[in-house]
Every structure is written in C-alpha cells, then in structure tokens.
Amino acid sequence: MKKIESIIQPHKLDEVKEALKSIGVDGMTITEVRGHGRQKGHKEVYRGMEYQVDLLPKVKIEMVLADDRVDEVVQALIAAARSGKIGDGKIFVTDVADVIRIRNEDRGEAAL
Amino acid sequence: MRTVVKLLYETQGDAVQVSEAVILPPPPPETVHRTIASRSADVDRRVLEAFAPTLQQRAKSGLALVAVGGFGRRELFPHSDVDLLLLIGSESDMPPKEAIASFLQQLWDGGLRPSHSVHTVADCVTEHADNAELTISLFDRRLLAGDESLFQTLEERFKAFLSKRATLIAQQLAGLATGRRAKFQNTIYHLEPNIKDAPGGLRDLQTVRWLQALEPLEGTPSLQGALAFLGGIRIRLHELAGRDQNVLSFEAQDALAEQPAALMRDYYRHARVVDRSVRQAIETATERPGSLLGRFHEWRARLSTSEFTVSRERVLLRSVQAPEDLRLFEFVARHQLRLAPDTIERLQGFVPKATWVDWKRMLSLPRPAAGLRAMQEAGVLTAALPEWANIECLVVRDFYHRYTVDEHTLVAIGALESVTDGRFAELLGEIEDPALVRFALILHDIGKGSGRDHSEAAVEVAGHVMTRLGAPEMDRATVEFLIARHLEMSSVMSSRDLHDGATARAVADRVGTIERLKLLTMLTYADISAVNPQAMTPWRLEQLWRVYLLAHQELTKELETERIHSPSGVAPERARFLEGLPMRYVRTHTEAEIDGHYQLARQLESRAVAIEIHHERSIYKLVLLTRDRPALFASVAGAISSFGLNILKAEAFTNAEGVVVDTFTFADPHRTLELNPTEVDRLRGVVRRVLEGKQEAEKLLRGRPKPLLPAKARLKPRVAVKNDVSDAATLVEIVAEDRPGLLYDLARAISESGCNIEVVLIDTEAHKALDVFYVTYQGKKLETAIQDHLKAGLLAACMAQQ
Questions:
Q1: pLDDT above 80 (res B481)
Q2: B117 burial class (0-12, 13-18, 19+ CB within 10 angstroms)?
Q3: Looking at the partner chain, which of B549, B718, B770 has a beta carbon nearest the beta carbon of A44?
Q4: Distance (Å, rounded) from C-alpha B125 to C-alpha B129?
Q5: How far is B117 from chain A (nearest CA, A)?
Q6: CA terminus-to-terminus distance, chain A
Q7: pLDDT tens, B568-600?
Q8: Cβ contact (<8 Å) for B542 and A34?
Q9: A57 touches chain B (CB under 8 A)
C-alpha cells in the first residue's frame, strides 16, 4: 500500500476531487495548509508598504491506496492540478506498513 | 428530505429492533416526571439488592449509602450515571476495597453506571476550591441504607455549612456554569444542541434551582414546563443511543418529530426561558454589593438619563412606554448594557416607529450587536422588521453552520466588533459608513428557507424593507449590492486562481469601486467568522486578504486606465462630455448627479469656470468644471483650506476634451459656512478668482495659523510611486496622518516638481488620509530622478516641514 500526499493550488481542489472520483477514488483527507517550496512566496505592495508573503495558502490531499492503483491516481492528480505555472505543487508517494479500520479492526487492503 | 432512521430500543439490556422510520415523539410532559422518578425507584431497588450482600453487614454503624446528584433528587434518565456517596464515620470505617469493588461490580453487571465516592462527614462540609462538584452533588441527597444517625449528622452539618458559606458556593456554582456555557459560545441557538450542557439546557435549569435554594430569587419564571420538555427529549435521546447521549443531532431530530423544524422551535422557546433565568441567577450570584464588580456596576448607574435608569447593568424605563424609535436600543448598544426583565415585560407588543435614520444611527455605533440582541430578546426585532420572522430560530442543516440563521446573523454583526487581525481592523476603520455593512448583514440570509436562491430572495426583501424605511437611493443600492454579492469573495477565495490576472479583473469588475470592495470584504469577513467558532482559520483569513489586495490593486489601476469610450444610449452631446472620463465616474455618481455635471459643463461655453456647492447636514460638496491648467487642483484645495474647511474627500477627473471634473467634500469644523451664509458665496468667488489667476492660494493661506502637529504622529507617512500600473501615468499613493491643509500641501508639492495631476482619489478615515494621484511629467510617466524628487517633496509635505 502507498500513501499519496499531494500539495496543490486551492482553486484546483474541485477539479482534482472530480478527477479522483471519476477513477473511483472516494476516500481522501483534505487539509488547508500554508507553506512554500521553491516558489518562496513573493512581495506584495499595499499602500506603499511592502509585505513579504512567504507562506502561501495551499491544499493538501492525502489518500492511501493499493500499490496497483498508484500510477493511475498520480496521473489523474497531475492532469487535474497542472497549470504549468510555478506553484502547481507536488506529489509525494510513500510506503504504508499497515492500515487498521478502527470500527472492526480490518487490516491491510481490506481496511482501505 | 427526511432521513430514514433505525431505532434501537433498549430495555433492561435487551436490544429490540424497532421497524424503520418510526417516529418516536418525546413522552407527554405530564408523564416525564413520573418516568424519571420511576426509573429512580427501580434503581433504588437494584442498588439496595447489590448493597445487601456486599456492604450491608458493615452498615450498622459508621457507614451509610447515600443517593446524591440526579439520583438523589429522584430524577434518573434511562442511561444517566447513578451517583452514590458512601458516607463513613471516620477513616477507620472505610470498608475493604474488595467489598466496595464487588458492590460496584454487581451494579455494572446489572447495566447501571455507578459513579461513587467515599467521604467522611468532615470532607462533605469542607470547601473544595478545585472540587465544587462534591458540594454540588450533596445538594440533593437522601439516605438509601445504613447508619441513619450518621446521615442525620451529615444533614445537620451540611445545612449549617450551606447557610454559612452560601455566598461563596453560589459564586462557585456561577463560575462553573459560566465556564461551561462559554464552551458553547454562550448561545442557545445551536443547530445540534447538547440538551444537557449547552446554554438553556438541563444543567442550566438545575443551576437555577440550586442558586435559588441558596438564595431565593425574585421574579424567576417557573421552569417546570422547560424541565418536562427537555426531560422528555433526554429520555428519548438516551433510548435512541442506548447510552448517556445528550446531543439533539439532526438524526435524533428526525427520529423524534414528524416536523423537526417545529420541534426545534419548541426547543429554542423553552431553552430561551431557561437561559434567561440562569443568566439572571448567575448575575445575582456574582455581583455582591461591595465587590469590585458590584462597585463598577453601581458606578455605571450614573449613565441613567431622564428616560432610562441603569441599575446593575440593566436598563429600566422611566415612563410606562418605551420611546417610539430605537433610542432605547441605541442606549443599550452605546453603553453595552442589557434590558431589565421589567423592561422586556413592558416591551411586549411594542412596535417601534423606526426610520432608516434611526437604524443607521444605531448601526453606526462601534458595537451595535448588543442593541440588536436586546431587540431580539424583547421580540422588538420582529416587530420593527417583520421579515426577521423568516429566519427566527430557522434551522438550515449543513455540515458547517453551527447556529440557527438568526443567531448566525447576530454573531456575524458581533464579529465586526472583535476584529483581531490588524489588516482587517484597519480596513474596517477606513469604511465611511459601516452601518451599511451591518444592515446588509442583518438581511443577508433573510432569503434562507424561501426555497429559492437565498441571495436573490434577500435582495428583493431588502429592497422592500429599505423603501419602507425611507433609505436614500445610494444606500439602498449599496446594501442590495452587498447582499447580492455576499458569497462572491468566498467563492473566489476557494475556487479561482488568484495568480491569474483575469481573477482580479473579474472581481474588480463586479465590485466596481474601492469603497464597495472594502464593504464587501468586511461583510465576507463577518459572514465567514459567524459560521462556527473555528471557521475563520488563518488560511481563510490569508486568502480573503489576498482577494481584497488583488481587487484593490486592480481598481486603483482602473482609475486611470479604464476610461469611458463611446458610451451607448446617451445623447451625442452628453457622450462627448463622458468620453474619456474614468469608469469610476459613472460608478460613483447617480444619473441625477451626472446630469447636473453635464449642465455645468454646458456653462463652460460662456464662462471659464462652473461651480456648484451643496450641503447636507454638516458636510459640504463642491463640484467644479473647468479647462485643465497647471496647479489647478492645488489651487482649489488651497482656496477651500483657507476658509478653515477640512477636506475629507476629493476626486479629479479629466475627459477627452480636457474638461476637468473636480469634486471636493469637506467638513466645516468651525461652522463658518453654516453661521455665515454669505461665506458660501465668498468661497465660490475665491475659488473662481484663484482659477482665473486673480488671486493666489499661497497668499490666502499665509494668514492662517499653521496647525500644530500632534506631539506623537500616530501614523508614519508612506509614499509609494509606481510606474508599472498604468500605460500613460505614474501612480502615487500616499498614506498619512490627516491635518487641515494636507491636501493643498501635497498637491502643491506635485505641481512644484513640474508634474501634472491626471486623476485624483482622496479619502480620509479616522485621521488617516488615503490619497491616490496619477501624475505625468510633460505628458509622460515620471523618470526615476523626478520620482525621487517628488517622493521627497511629498514626504516633507506630510510632515508639514516647510
């Protein structure tokens, strides 16, 4: 099993959710986060004062999937979240040792 | 849509599945007391059965089994904890652990949830600063079994303890209640209320009873009705969940009533009675005469007027009837008070004759929510604004909203009174007429429950309401705009690419002017903050600010770049006048005003300058049309200042033919114009002569005393010069501490550096001048050297260093 964590632009969330739903991924956790990568924020000028905006609002989507679904989901994420501009975000894929459903203690892929 | 609910009906541990979608209404009120008393009697029997084999033999002397808490007062709900006290004579009477364990084990096995404690009489009559719960549980106590004389000792000593320490215990009780209520944001209007712990719930009801036992209160209504109603619901909630579950969730509402909305309206009605009683009881308990708080409140009695008496933070009416308008509520809001029960009584059936002016006066106060809440509490809000009934106690179920629609609305208005983020607090301070945001908030969700798009429905209602109240056209248009667009910014925040220039243009286009953008931003801030206590996350705050910033920049840019070109649907003569004026001009003026300006423009055929001065209450407005010439704007600003008048706003636009339309809005702090009507004519004459070059503004001002700069300038002046905003001109933005004559000094600094002013937008809010100039130098944007020179000149002007 793999965990896919993806940081995307907030306005892409609906598109990404739609794309995931269309390939049958329903379970996900979505968090409103702030941060920066290479984009490093930018300066904004308001009323003659410069503000360094270093933590940009982003959305994080997390889901855990069976290994054989990972490629398909990553492709769907890229297709939906890409605008080609700086700040489109990143996708992280990591191994997951086990999954337990709290209600009935199902384990492994059965618990996904 | 109603959900089909499966009910699990549990009796004595046997789960019985009841058929689907059965509605199980709460038991009739008259049976509630019997039901909980009979459960208590049943539990009595079972506790005694468990006590007999385990602890009974020790109970001859030195041990008594006492029912306390809800069990003590014979009010046991199906799955309530069974509170037991093992009263021992002394530490040596402590029964062996195993005996107690086996007693409790038997209760657990029988499906009860015992909650027990072991104490000596001395423990029971000692103050426990950190454990007031023990004292409170002992309020309701009865002997179940064991040493009768030991229990009698407790009876006597506890009664003595109570009467001696009544004040302190009452304060502890009040403190606990206050803390608990705060966890529920002090409101009864939760969509899914916890009927035990939330404000207006059973715990509050019990608190009233206890406080009354300590110190009888006058004039508290009977809580029997509320007890039967809330008790009935709690019985069903326990049965539904099969445990001590007290949240009246959406599912439970569906299971309890054919029409959940009606059930909830009844709920809020009863909860309101309890809430009112408990607040009064808490107040009485915490405000002892002579206490610091008490003394402060006595001091507040000095606020009393010939109409209203203030006593202990409560407003009483001096005459039989309340004043016809909203004065009473304005008074409440101005001093952050509450209505006395007697006042509420007298307001029953009262219909205020409130006009738009009355509403605006109240809503212009810094903290008007208290006034609105007082109106709501006394039923006057619905009387003054019958449309309010649409949303009163209205439950609209969704995942995010925590409160009923009316409560959401009042929380939103309150949210503007505690803006902690500096940027938004500043923005709010810059709004010229915050009453408009507040009035828009009052009505923004009034269309909910109408079955149509709620914004559209609300705009319609707002139109009727404001016409009825006699609101002027401009105010009405602004409020209708705010209501129609109240979801706009939230939707942009979450679903538009903020890096895309098109997003900023779209928002700017829909909002139209910087003034409206500020209003809409603060309305959005309040609306999101009132969804639930956690809704305004730093994330959303940041997003909202970014949307504001983008739209603000776009609108500033538009000032110079977006010009009227070949306007359609107007006569050719008028089209020539409009041609080349900024879009802002048509957005900020009514048809009638534009018409007036056009008439003035026609006068220019026969004279060099056309001037018009109106005034409305203490504010004057001068409109001037003429051919552009160097230092024009500075001269006029100087002429106005030379009369001791204080310029609050100004706009200067030029059309394609080089006709300048300048508008100056100014205050008359020394009442010069008001007391000497001929001065208005003299002002007109001076402005004309200055523009004709017959008089110099500089000389006019020479005789006037220079204003003293405040010892500590509150605001450090900021000047920003940007060349990338417009194709044709350079943007100069200035933020500075306002003072008389500032505008003249700034405009002169621009003229002296050889620059020409193309577009001007001047605004003043709360001692802060917010000025935007678009300038050119010999018809072009400014080179760096000239920029630096200009910037230095402007900064010097801000500091009044000449």
A1: yes
A2: middle
A3: B549
A4: 12
A5: 33
A6: 9
A7: 888 888 888 999 898 888 888 888 889 899 999
A8: yes
A9: yes
8 Å CB contact between B563 and B580: yes
Are B403 and B332 in contact by the 8 Å Cβ rule? The answer is: no
Q: How far is A68 from chain B (nearest CA, A)?
A: 31
pTM of the model: 0.81
Give the Cα separation of B307 and B323 in Å (integer).
8
- Whether residue A98 lies within 8 A of chain B, CB to CB, comes out as no
Cβ of A44 within 8 Å of Cβ of B497? The answer is no
Positive or negative: CA dihedral B316, B317, B318, B320:
negative
Q: How far, in Å, CA of B464 to CA of B458, rounded?
A: 10
Question: What residues form DSSP beta bridges with B146?
Answer: B64
Question: B718–A32: do the CB atoms touch at under 8 Å?
Answer: no
CA-CA-CA-CA dihedral for B112, B116, B121, B123, to nearest 10? -150
Dihedral class, residue B216 (left if φ above 0, else alpha if ψ from -120 to 50, else beta) = beta
Give contacts of B718 with chain A, Cβ < 8 Å: 47-49
Q: Could you report the per-residue pLDDT of B7-60, keeping only the tens digit for each?
A: 333 333 333 344 455 788 888 888 898 999 999 999 999 999 888 888 877 666
Rg over CA atoms, chain A? 17
Q: What is the pLDDT of residue B5?
A: 31
Give the strand order in the sheet containing B114-120: B114-120, B82-88, B63-67, B142-146
pLDDT digits (tens, 9 = 90+) for B421-477: 989 998 998 898 999 999 999 999 999 988 889 999 999 999 999 999 999 998 999
Residue range A23-57, pLDDT digits in tens? 999 889 999 998 877 766 677 777 766 777 778 88
Structure tokens at B247: 């949240």
For residue A90, the distance in angstroms to the closest alpha carbon of chain B comes to 17
Task: Determine which helix (DSSP H) or strand (DSSP E) holds B779, and give its type and residue range.
Answer: none
Q: How confident is the model at residue B802 (pLDDT cuts 50, 70, 90)?
A: very low
